[in-house]
Amino acid sequence: MKFTRRELLIAGLGMLVTKVTGCTQSTTTLSRRPGTPWPGSISRPTPTRAGTHTVSAPRPVQPTRPVATTAGPPGLVPRSWWTRSGPIRSKVNPMKGINRITIHHEGHTPVWFTDARSTKARLEQVRNIHTRDRRWGDIGYHYVIDRAGRVIEGRPLAYQGAHVSQQNPHNVGVMLLGNFEKQSPSQAQLTALQSTLRHLMAKYRVPVRRVYTHRELGPTVCPGRNLQPRIASLRTSGALA
Ligand SMILES: [Zn+2]
């Protein structure tokens, strides 16, 4: 059977679409959500002065200090490690304070690789899909943890992420590479996730009850049946305290 160039092109596009990466909020990964993921419908908390231990404890739901992009989680691998592209400034909104954290899996094909080259390629693939297919301003997540346990900077924390529909303001997105419906996270990933969460919670004064998984905020299986219970036990075990 012979195909026209157009048919081949369409077939190719179809394959490309089925490669869509990410933890979408429905069972189909093909749908495109219209509009930008930051509706601004959530009232914006007022950032308070912070940075010293003498400041009286603020209400925990409020962002407690201006976003700093310099000091990150322990061992943070900078964005420049995997991409030379920056966010599309016209398509990203300022974060203006942090008061919650949401955990995701990548949700595409299972990830077994641990080498730097493969991780870099995968991150670039995710960024391309988020910026070209979904037309977002950058990769949606602020941090990505690969199977080797590297904690890698994604979207700069200075900007709102694009990782939970309607709930991106003040919300740090942490994604673990892999599909935890089909595989389990590596111990290195879990260890790195714990230290990342502890860092973020301490730095931004996010209480454990404000550490969510994606499925707790929207209709999705993310972060997968093999990671969800690990997060639940992390929260209840005192490991994040
Ligand atoms: Zn997700």
Uncertain ranges: 8-21, 26-69
Structural class: alpha/beta
Radius of gyration: 18 Å
In helices, the fraction of residues equals 10-25%
What this model shows, in words?
- The protein is an alpha/beta fold.
- Helices cover 25% and strands 9% of the residues.
- It is built from four helices and five strands; from the N terminus they run αβαβββαβα.
- A hairpin with a 5-residue loop joins strand 2 and strand 3 (151-153).
- It is globular and about 40 Å long.
- The model is unreliable at 8-21 and 26-69 (pLDDT under 50).
- The structure holds zinc ion.
Features:
alpha/beta, binds zinc ion, 4 helices, Lysozyme-like, 9% strand, 241 residues, 25% helix, five-stranded mixed β-sheet
What's the gist of this structure?
With 241 residues, the chain is an alpha/beta fold.
Describe the secondary structure blueprint for this structure.
Elements: H1 5-18, E1 100-105, H2 116-133, E2 143-145, E3 151-153, E4 171-176, H3 187-204, E5 211-213, H4 228-237
Parallel strand pairs: 1-4, 1-5, 2-4
Antiparallel strand pairs: 2-3
The structure holds zinc ion (ZN).
Residues 23, 104, 214, 220, 222 line the site of zinc ion.
